[in-house]
Amino acid sequence: MTLTLVLGGARSGKSRFAQGAAETAATAGRPLSMIVTAQSFDGEMAFDAEMADRIARHRADRGPAWRTVEAPTGLAQAIGALGEGDVAVVDCLTLWLTNVMLGERDLAAEIEALLAALRACPARLWLVSNEVGWGLVPETPLGRAFRDEAGRLHQQIAGIADEAFLIVAGLPLRLKPPA
Predict the structure, then answer these.
(1) How far apart are CA 148 and CA 97, in angstroms?
(2) Bridge-partner residues for 139, per DSSP?
(3) Is the pTM of the predicted complex or chain greater than 0.85?
(4) What is the pLDDT of residues 51-72, one digit of tens each?
(5) Which residues are catalytic?
(6) Residue 137, SS3?
């Protein structure tokens, strides 16, 4: 297993970076998996036109070599289903965290399950997430709780990751080199 955390702001190029790295690492004949965390609404992933455009762009960028696994809250289970030699990207952790928090699920248990799945995962895996702690202090208690939980989640995953990158303006900055 090799686990890479990819952090960045909105439209920083983090998804493109993770996708390209996964495609480079993939062995011929092995499937590439994109584990997406967008929430479905009445069978549709998008709940508005802007989100539909984002999803369509991401799918077009990936192409037919990728299989899509939808895991808006069942991320630990989706990662647990990956096998030896698989290559996968999770896009994205902050959307998963949003789904867990808004769904009023047991956040501590969900995070512990995710960390356990990551530690046990035999696949080559990239985790994409939004760095949300550099902006303004959120106005609402829920916004502040989300920012804080995202920061703690990133720290925990960075602690077990083999490597980590920060993507700014499409440029990767290596935060944690492989051991």
Answers:
(1) 11
(2) none
(3) yes
(4) 667 666 766 777 778 999 999 9
(5) 58
(6) coil
